[in-house]
Amino acid sequence: MNYQSNYEAWLRDERLLPEERAELQVIASDEKEKEYRFGGELEFGTAGMRGIIGCGMNMMNIRTVMRATQGLSEYVKTLGGDAAARGVVISYDTRRNSRLFAEKAAGVLAKNGIKAYLFGDVHPVPMLSYAVRYLNTVAGIMITASHNPKEYNGYKVYGEDGAQMSPEATAIVVNFIEKITDYLSVTGEENSALIVPVPADTDDTYLAELSKLTLSDEAVKACGKELKLVYTPVHGSGYVPVMRILKRLGINVTVVEAQTAPDPEFSTVKVPNPEYKETLSLGIALANEIDADVVFGTDPDSDRLGVALKDENGEFIALSGNQVGILLLDYILTRLKEDGKLAKNAAVVKSFVTTGMAKAICDDFGVALYETPVGFKFIGEKIKQWEGDGKHEYVFGFEESCGYLRGTHARDKDAVVASMLCAEMVCYYTYVGKSVYGRLREIYAKYGYVLDRNVSIQYAGLNAMKEMNAVVDALKTVRVEAFGSFAVEAVRDYSASLRRSADGTAEPLDIPKCNCVYYELAGGSFICVRPSGTEPKLKIYYSIKAKDEAGAEAALQAAQKDVNALLERVKK
């Protein structure tokens, strides 16, 4: 792809807006920047598209948004006569240009004769997922780059079941998108009567659905008003719904005022990702000031929840997504069992890179555990499958990246319901004379210590995804007998849907394909390497089982040294 000719074609196009032309003129002598913007196209995958905001074919802007929406419109028109009337619901978060992109998407849909429901203000991912189902729309669009840095925005598409669009449907949409070679040819009708507001009762019914999922009413009534909970929405869309559901339960909440207002610059944090302790630092400071019990933080589109709580020394520690996940899993199963409501066919779903401890907990409760590739849409597919065949009753789903879902009101990560459950979990353990941190230590003592750690290797440039995939592909060609003290018992190649044991035998994997190498290690530990689907990062996941934390840390260091050496080998 000739980036110079693409750049020049855009620059001289009379349809280009003055502000777009001015932006392109600024980079006239910057060959690297021109190549990045015009040397490729922003990829539309099963998670939609995500990129740096700016003018160009490989950037997030009104042109790439409208082109993607035209592709979606063509797909909707293939679904039959009533699909356009059912329409598409659109939401957006607090990022730069999110409202603008949402309006442009609505205009393109309307010009294609498709009804567009548009939220009047920012709403999080789970409420968009819920609205798709509540309004019976044929699809949904969420404008967000989730937890990415401030320079990014993105575009997610949801199917009629409220889950992110399936790979099969996405492939059809992508085919329509790729046929549009003239980016500036797509237009919309933003004043069309087909663009209507999302009904006002949608928010209230969503919160009512969440209220049905409470597990410890007695404990919340006894302890909720005395609980000291600090919450920060990190300038994102979670502020209103999280505060509403916690207040509805009667939970005492103190909010971090400096982080409540929408701020597309996310000026109080380095990155708006609640997985990082630094993102929760203002919340922790406030918690120390008022002697609070727990700190919650949600990301810009409020599908991820970060949690910090006091350890045995009274110091706040930021829990990993895996730790919050096993605490919620243990709490949900415990309460359902105590109340005699744990179904015999209950099932839990997690991504295969999520902590190995989940299996021990599920086995102990007699609950089935299923694994999926990374991406909550795959968990949503399991919910849909079981609703159809009745094989299992979905109880809980989670991913290590701070994503959790209880209930079937939505089919994506939901930090609002997770906030509710975590708050009542704190109340429950307070009610029975324990602490949440104390319960975490009990879980480790019962099932064995598991150290879960993720390492990301940053890539850059137009070929970042290609380079990362090449590394993963190269790993598949190298036989590895051990990492540190752990023997490799089997290797899963998810791109080939094969599991190869150390003895040479192979068996198929019944799981959607993805480019990933997963090493099963002796004793139930694992190491997994995969390229991120949303950021230019190669991700390495370690789940190390040991007798205690010190042993796990030492084993991790030894395994990590071997992994790093292997990566250097395959890069040469």
Can you walk through the features of this model?
A hairpin with a 4-residue loop joins strand 21 and strand 22 (526-531). The chain has 572 residues and is α/β, with parallel strands linked by helices. The protein contains 19 helices and 23 strands. The mean pLDDT is 96. Helix 10 (217-223) crosses helix 16 (415-431).
Sum this structure up briefly.
With 572 residues, the protein is α/β, with parallel strands linked by helices.
What secondary-structure arrangement, pairings included, does this model have?
Layout: H1 3-12, H2 18-26, H3 31-38, E1 49-52, H4 62-77, H5 83-86, E2 88-92, H6 98-111, E3 116-118, H7 125-134, E4 139-143, E5 152-158, H8 167-178, E6 195-197, H9 201-211, H10 217-223, E7 229-232, H11 239-249, E8 253-255, H12 281-290, E9 294-298, E10 305-310, E11 316-318, H13 321-338, E12 346-351, H14 357-365, E13 368-372, H15 376-389, E14 393-399, E15 403-405, H16 415-431, H17 436-447, E16 449-458, H18 464-475, E17 482-483, E18 486-493, E19 498-501, E20 506-508, E21 517-521, E22 526-531, E23 537-546, H19 549-571
Parallel strand pairs: 2-3, 2-4, 3-6, 7-8, 7-9, 12-13, 12-14
Antiparallel strand pairs: 1-5, 4-5, 9-10, 10-11, 14-15, 16-23, 17-18, 18-19, 18-21, 19-20, 21-22, 22-23
Main beta sheet strand tally, sense and closure: 8 strands, antiparallel
Global structural class: alpha/beta
Number of strands: 23
Distance between the termini: 27 Å
Integer-rounded radius of gyration: 24 Å
Mean pLDDT, all residues = 96
Strand content: 15-25%
Helix run count: 19
Uncertain segments: none
- Percent helix among the residues? 25-40%
**What is the 3D form?**
globular
